[in-house]
């Protein structure tokens, strides 16, 4: 219902307007942008667009409340005048047409603005003699785009030095020019040196920068020069533009730290040194201990990287994809095998600090994980300092110490020290007064790809780590499935956002070596919604380790499910084994049926994913004794498979595969049933390690020894 645009009692709501401060009901509803909440937008506290989503929801609630109040107020008014009703209809039609035109224009402009991020590549000069100056000018433009001052100095010895300076941070880049071929000069990075312009030489401060940061900047520049200085038919302008865009973002991030360092004077160097201190004093020494524990449990050295990630607390990789700290959370079996088979470089620089002893060189890990496109099967989380509207909540009651995560199974007697991250807020009177700077754990690589698919129960557990007294009811074991909402399996198997939702999925698992008949898998989708984990605010390294424990378990489960090509049950797209009903049956087949030795065409397997209720000792423990709470262990993540016993035995075989960091390979296998099977638990755990979880029913079927009936 709408009212004519006149300042009368029919005005419904108040809001911005070009003609009046009052708006009618129709205008209020139309002002709610149709794309305020995108259908596939993740609306939860750990999404990248959390603040925008909350603002849109608040606006929607306020507008609907105003419209409801106005309609209730005007409900008793008599509308018996037919002419007035006719005017109402006419006005509504005109207003609707105007609103439709406005929405079309807005949508057109929005689509055009999306193209602003499209790049057509760097304009690499065709004249090779001008390539050196062009590369230098590109670096200068990157610094200017980040708000830095640039200075160039050329020497007579064939070297060029470019200085990028902020208020505190100074980056000196030395280039070497090879002019042995006058028609094709070559530019290389001779060295990068970062330093800090400390206002006062106070005790304990230093002007020397981070050697790791120097190497990170040098690697980025070397990658750019390598791409643009290739032969003309091998150049990739798109890749060069991508590297340039990443370099600008990295310099802008450093300038954010520069702003905070300038504000604090001599103490401001902590914003640049915090990640190096975190690496050298906390995460790397702890990773060394965990790698030693893994190697000793396997009676060998070095520790396999995949087992280390399953049992330890991630692999710290400072300055991997950004000038901050990154953590390698999980590797799929295929990704691990790819890294393992990558030939090591002929020479590797000796690290200045002790690193974990693992079976893959760190140089290989870094080179593979920094390539574009990103290495599939690798889950990486990065600590970044970002702005927010509100600072982190204070933990005056010490509730974070009651969290059940992290669990140090490898080093129970020597837990690592905690490390709190610095946070601040812009002072009053500044143009950005009230803006908070918080540390986030980013799973999207600065928005380049979507985050990690998580189940609702695990997101609740993460919420209790970050904010133990949040509004989420952690004691509830009932998953909240909305009408028309798919499960987290639907979200995992449907990354493009189409409408493939089903209660069950089917797939055909064929043994690579034909060890057993094909398995007809039937996956029951759990009654639990899914969410995309994108960014999480954190305050200390203990929270980071606790969150990454939950994420790695979910990643392990996601990789198992993604190991097959699933289709909706009944869609007819499954690669099922055809039933040859017209095939001739001979005497041998009949005798095999009578003796029970016939091999079935396929083995039906039902797969279940038990819903994990959130585990929080604050709600689950009978007492609040800290010693009692710390001894509680989280519930196991598991997958259950059932299949028929091998003929002539009747019944079902149940195989349960659980994520278990206490086991040598980080996984435990239990088999119920399988009469007459010689089950080797360690062999099955090794199969799971190599990505054969969904093939376990076939292997157990093969192990069963059945005699003549």
**DSSP strand content:** 15-25%
Main sheet: strands, sense, barrel? 7 strands, mixed
The chain-level structural class is: alpha+beta
Mean pLDDT: 82
Number of helices: 18
Helix content: 25-40%
Global morphology? globular
**Parts with pLDDT < 50 across at least 5 consecutive residues:** 1-20, 472-476, 621-632
Total DSSP E strands: 21
Intertermini distance: 79 Å
- Going across the biggest sheet, name each strand in turn: 17-13-14-18-19-20-21
Give the C-alpha Rg. Answer: 31 Å
Organism: Cristinia sonorae
Protein name: Mediator complex subunit 1
Description:
- It comes from Cristinia sonorae.
- This is Mediator complex subunit 1.
- The chain has 709 residues and is of the alpha+beta class.
- Among the domains are: 105 residues, no CATH class; 143 residues, no CATH class.
- The protein contains 18 helices and 21 strands.
- The strands form 5 sheets. The chain has a 7-stranded mixed beta sheet. Strands 7, 8, 9, 10, 11 and 16 form a 6-stranded antiparallel beta sheet that branches. The protein has a 4-stranded antiparallel beta sheet with strand order 3-4-5-6.
- A hairpin with a 3-residue loop joins β4 and β5.
- α4 crosses α6.
């Amino acid at each position: 219902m709408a009212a004519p645009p006149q300042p009368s009692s029919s005005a419904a709501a108040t809001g911005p307007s070009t003609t009046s401060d009052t708006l009618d009901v129709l205008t209020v509803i139309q002002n709610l942008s149709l794309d305020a909440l995108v259908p596939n937008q993740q609306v939860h506290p750990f999404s990248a667009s959390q603040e925008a989503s909350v603002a849109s929801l608040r606006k929607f609630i306020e507008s609907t409340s105003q419209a409801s109040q106005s309609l209730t107020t005007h409900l008793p008014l008599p509308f018996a005048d037919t002419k007035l009703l006719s005017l109402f209809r006419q006005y509504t039609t005109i207003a609707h047409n105007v609103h439709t035109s406005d929405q079309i224009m807005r949508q057109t402009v929005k689509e055009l603005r999306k193209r602003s991020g499209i790049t057509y590549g760097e304009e690499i000069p065709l004249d090779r003699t001008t390539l050196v100056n062009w590369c230098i000018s590109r670096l200068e433009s990157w610094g200017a785009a980040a708000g830095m001052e640039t200075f160039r100095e050329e020497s007579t010895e064939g070297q060029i030095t470019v200085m990028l300076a902020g208020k505190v941070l100074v980056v000196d880049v030395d280039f070497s020019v090879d002019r042995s071929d006058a028609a094709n000069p070559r530019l290389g990075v001779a060295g990068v040196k970062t330093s800090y312009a400390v206002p006062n030489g106070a005790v304990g401060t230093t002007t020397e920068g981070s050697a790791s940061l120097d190497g990170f900047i040098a690697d980025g520049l070397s990658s750019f020069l390598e791409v643009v200085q290739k032969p003309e038919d091998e150049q990739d302008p798109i890749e060069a533009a991508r590297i340039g865009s990443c370099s600008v973002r990295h310099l802008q991030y450093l300038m954010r730290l520069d702003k905070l360092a300038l504000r604090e004077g001599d103490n401001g160097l902590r914003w640049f040194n915090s990640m190096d201190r975190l690496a050298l004093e906390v995460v790397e020494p702890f990773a060394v201990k965990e790698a030693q524990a893994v190697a000793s449990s396997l009676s060998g050295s070095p520790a396999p990287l995949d087992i280390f990630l399953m049992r330890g607390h991630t692999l710290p990789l400072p300055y991997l994809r950004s000038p901050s700290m990154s953590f390698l959370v999980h590797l799929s079996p295929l990704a691990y095998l790819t890294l393992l088979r990558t030939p090591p470089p002929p020479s590797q620089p000796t690290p200045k600090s002790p690193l974990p002893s693992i079976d893959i060189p760190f140089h290989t890990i870094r080179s593979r994980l920094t390539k574009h496109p990103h290495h599939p099967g690798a889950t990486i989380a990065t600590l970044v300092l970002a702005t927010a509207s509100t600072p982190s909540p204070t933990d005056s009651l010490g509730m974070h110490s009651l969290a059940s995560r992290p669990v140090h199974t490898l080093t129970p007697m020597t837990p690592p020290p905690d490390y709190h991250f610095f946070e601040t807020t812009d002072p009053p009177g500044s143009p950005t007064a009230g803006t908070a700077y918080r540390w986030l754990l980013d799973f999207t690589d600065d928005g380049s790809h979507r985050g990690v698919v998580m189940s609702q129960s695990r997101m609740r557990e993460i919420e209790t780590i970050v904010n133990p007294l949040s509004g989420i009811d952690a004691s509830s074991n009932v998953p909240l499935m909305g009408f028309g909402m798919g499960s987290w399996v639907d979200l995992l198997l449907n990354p493009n956002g189409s409408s493939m939702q089903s209660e069950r999925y089917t797939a055909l698992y064929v043994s690579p070596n034909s060890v057993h008949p094909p398995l007809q898998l039937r996956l029951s989708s759990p009654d639990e919604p899914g969410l995309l984990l994108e960014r999480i605010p954190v305050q200390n390294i203990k929270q980071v380790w606790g969150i990454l424990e939950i994420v790695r378990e979910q990643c392990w489960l996601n990789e198992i499910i993604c190991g097959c090509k699933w289709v909706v049950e009944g869609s007819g797209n499954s690669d099922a084994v055809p039933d040859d009903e017209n095939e001739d049956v001979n005497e041998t087949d009949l005798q095999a049926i009578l003796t029970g030795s016939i091999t079935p065409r396929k083995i039906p397997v039902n797969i279940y994913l038990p819903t994990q209720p959130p585990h929080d000792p604050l709600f689950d423990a009978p007492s609040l004794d800290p010693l009692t709470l710390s001894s509680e262990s989280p519930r196991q993540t598991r997958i259950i498979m059932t299949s028929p016993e091998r003929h002539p035995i009747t019944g079902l075989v149940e195989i349960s595969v659980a994520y278990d960091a206490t086991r040598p390979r980080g996984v435990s296998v239990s088999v119920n049933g399988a009469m007459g099977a010689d089950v080797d638990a360690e062999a099955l755990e090794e199969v799971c390690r190599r990505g054969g979880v969904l093939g376990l029913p076939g292997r157990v079927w093969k192990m069963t020894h059945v005699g003549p009936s």
